[in-house]
Structure formats: C-alpha cells, structure tokens
Amino acid sequence: MTTAAVALPSTVSNGLSRGWVETLQFLRDRTAVIFTFAFPAMLLLLFGTIFGDSYDDTGVSASQVYSASMIAYGILSTAFVTMGSGVALDREDGTLKRLHGTPITPTAYVMGKLILVLILSVAEAAILILVGILIFDMPVPDAAHWLTFAWLFLLSTFACTACGIAVSAIVKHARTAGAILNVPVVALQFISGVFIHPITQLPSWLITVASLFPVKWMSQGFRYVFLPDSMKQYEAASQWELGRTALVLGAWCVIGLVLCLVTFRWTEKDR
Amino acid sequence: MSDDAVEVRDVVVRYGATTAVDGVSLTVPRGRVFALLGHNGAGKTSLLQVCEGFRAASEGACRVLGLDPIRDHDELMPRLGIMLQSGGMYPWATASELLHLFASFSANPIDPGTLMDRLGLHKTAKTRYRRLSGGEQQRLSLAVALVGRPELVFLDEPTAGMDTEARHTTWQLIEELRADGVSVLLTTHLLDEAERLADDVVIMREGRVAATGTPAQLTAAAGIDHLEVRAEAGLKPEVPFKVTEATPGEYTIAGTLDAAAIASVLAWFAREGAQVTAVNTRRRTLEDVYLALTAEQLTTGKAGAGR
Predict the structure, then answer these.
(1) What is the ipTM of this complex?
(2) CATH code matching the domain that covers B223-282, chosen among 2.30.30, 3.30.70, 1.10.3470, 3.40.1350
(3) Quick one: what percent of chain A has pLDDT higher than 70?
(4) In this complex, do B90 and A17 lie within 8 Å of one another by their Cβ atoms?
(5) Which of B78, B105, B150 sits opposite A1 (nearest CB)?
(6) Burial, A162: exposed, middle or buried (Cβ in 10 Å; 0-12, 13-18, 19+)?
(7) Whole-structure pTM value
(8) Mind telling me which Pfam families this protein's record contains (chain B) (predicted)?
(9) Which residue from A64, A84, B170, B201 lies 20 to 30 Å from A223 (Cα-Cα)?
(10) Inter-chain CB proximity B52 and A101 less than 8 Å
C-alpha cells in the first residue's frame, strides 16, 4: 500500500466534509437544537411582551427595539457559546486528537466549525427577525439596509467564532464551558444596549467599557438595519456610527484570529 | 537516515513527578508486525503517543518513517494510520458517515463500503456511533486507521472489547496488512494475540523494556521446556535434568531441552528396556514468559515496599 502520486484533498474540501458531518451531528441532537434556537427567541418574546411601550415621538415600540438588538444575542449564543463549548468538548473527548492523527490542517478543522456556526447563526437570525416582523410588527428593511445587515452579520459571526475558539483554550472541562462562556455573554448584553436600551441610561464609564467589546456595535448595527432613522437619537453618540462599527468588529476579528492561533491546542495539556 | 518504520532511542515520558516511560529503545523494521506487551500502566500508550506525535518525549529521540513525528507532522500523517483506544467520534453521526469523512481526508482511500464489509460492519452502516456496541466502535476505529492506505499503522489495543469472531477477522486483516508490506506497531495485553501476530515482541514493565525478541526467541530463551514420557511406574531416570513423577508412570523432565538432550533422555528409557507408551514435548508459551516477568515485578515491588 504505497501512497499513490495523487495530491491530498485540499483544506477547503476537508473543511467542507467536516462542516457537513458537524451539521448533521448538531441537527440530530434535538436537545441541543431546541435549546440553542429556542432560548434567544423565548427571551425576545418575554421582553417584547413585558416592555411593550413606545419610544417618544418615533412610534417605535420597545418590542421592535428588542427584536433588532436580540439578533446580536442570537449570534453571540450560536457563534461564541456553541463554538467555545464545542471546541472545548472536541478537545476533551479526543475528537481533536483523532483529527490531529490525520492529514487535515487546523484551518480545515476550524472551517468545519465555521460552516456549522454560519448555518446556525443564519437560522437563529431568521427566527428572531421573523418573530420581530410577525409578532411585533417590526418593519421590513429595504435593500440597502439588507446589504448592511449582510456585512454586519458576517463580521459579527466571524469575530464571535474566533473569540469562542480562543476562549475554549482556557476552559478546563467541557462540563463547565457553558457556565464560563455565558458570563461574558450575559454581562456584555446588560451593558451593550441589548437588554437595557437606551444605552444612555448607563453611567458613561460603563458605556466606554462596553464600547471596547463587539456586542455594543453589533446591537447598534442591527438597530440601524431594522429601526427608523429617527431612533439614532437613543444611541450613545446619537449617531449610527456604521464606519466605527465596521472598524471595531474588524479589529475583533483580527484579535480573535490571533488569539486562536496563539492558544490553539490539539490536546488537553495533561492527559 | 535509517530505513526502519519506527526508531525509538532512550525515550523518557514524564507526567509531572510520574515517569511513565523510562528510557525505552526499540526498532520496528519495515513490513513487520511489532507488539508492545505489558500490564495497564506499563507505559505502552505513552510510548505510542510519542511515536504518533501527540506528545513530545521528555528525553530521547523518535523517528517515524525517517521523520520527526512532531516537526514533520504534516508530511508524516498522510502515511500513517492511527487507531486510538477510544473517543473522538461524533456520537450522532452514522458509522458510514464517519468512515466516509475520514476517507475524504486521504489522497487515495480504500472504498469505505468495501472496508466496512471486510470488517463485518455493513449491517451497522446506518447506525449512529452512540448506538454501536463496544466491539463495533472498535472495528470502526480500526477502519478509520486503515482507510487512507497507510504505510505504517499504530494500533492501541486493537481487539479490546471485540468478540472472538471479530478478533479473528481483525487478526486476519493485520496479517494481510503485513503481506501488503505495511508496518504495524500494536499494543496488547493479550498474549495469544502477540504470539499469533507479532514478528517481534517487546514486553514492557514499569516503563522499561523487560524482554525483547521474536515470540520463538522469548519462549525458547529461559529453557523451562517440558518433556513428558509415559512408561511403567517407579523408574529412576539418570539424566542431568529435573525429573518428576507426578502420577505413577507419568514422568516430566524439565530443562533446556534441545534435540540432543531429548535424544539422550529417550536413550536412557530405551537402555532400561522401558515400555514407553507416549512421548510429548511442551514448549514454554509467551504466557509463561510474561507471567515469570510479572511475578518478578510483584516480588521486587514487595521488596521495595518493605525497605
């Protein structure tokens, strides 16, 4: 059995094969599917129903604001939490080790995960947008706004995924991954204008802190996409700040990628 | 550079204060089946992990197919097949999906369907991994190691948890691999497995090499072969070996018995005019060697504790 003079499959094709099995694997675990998708949607229904008032002069209801902002939560939940705990689990149960004993590259591994995360995030965003439009009468945006949505969505998903993989390196046991990863997720949502809006109710130093992280910019961007222009008066800078949003999210993509490359391990440190 | 499949020189593996492998050297020639034999915790898996590039040796050197398993990982992996003891399979994916996935990583894989048939896994093709029995998971893991047509395979306890039939299929498969020129390094604690399959055996004990050689060399070396002779009771054979008559007329002669020695013993019976009705020789088995070595371990262990 000598190796024939055939080239090894490319990283891209290995990544696609892995993405396919990752997706099958995820969709068959019904408990994970239900909890991953249902939780953000349930929170949106709760918040949207409890806080139904309108913002002065704009005719926009709090439930519509939540619908837009919660897309940021949906992406955090599918990209950051699912990815972070998924990689920690792969490391603990030997999936990464087994793959390390094959010709595939770390990039092909991450690609497989990224495909899963993209599919999940698209589905999650679709559910939240549908709930917003169908239940809370959130207006359907025009084509230009959808274009913004597209780059915002991709940058957000990529930044959260990269950070999730990076954070998985400090998770000691997959069992505790969910708990650990949800701490930054919940904390950032309170200070980033997802749960509490207008964000200007927060002390200014806290807004400064939130501005260092991607979630504030994600939720602000999604509010730009789905809410009327007049709503910008409730933002921290009274502006949508799309350029700065792109800049901060782009920076987090780079930071996350560097952290990934520096911290990525195929196996657990000890045993 | 040597042309051996695996070359391990003075390898030490430490986990904190524990030394799992303590200065092991061994050579696996190309195209041979090499068995690492030992108790659980003897350091077999740790040594294998060094060869597989999963772990750096604390000391010593390891070359696999002439390459460094960690530095040359990308060049080496397409030529290796690795069967892990457990873990690392997607529980919700089916056996067939998993094998196709691993096949898709190789340049020229064996057809997954054929391989599954060969390993008796065709009935479980659509079964999710979590629903496979232990032996089926083990066979799938073996298929994953072989699907890329490797030059060298590392099998960590390949038949653990398999039933007798699956074990024999696996043994046949390993023999076919050798016939195809594939080199095999396997760990086992099954003595019949090592005796049947291995060209070379290394018995490991407490992280060190306790004995090494072909199964025949190992079993011949220490010389406790037995010659059993049945004749009339009450004879007193005058031979330079230990003779016991456990039941009347059943003589057991123990010692290093080459052909000349056996001839001299039988010659004594002939000179006495004894009515010899049965002659039987019994070779020491690998199990005898292994038990002798591990008994030594127990004795030294007790002496160490008493000190």
Answers:
(1) 0.82
(2) 3.30.70
(3) 95
(4) no
(5) B150
(6) buried
(7) 0.80
(8) ABC_tran
(9) A84
(10) yes
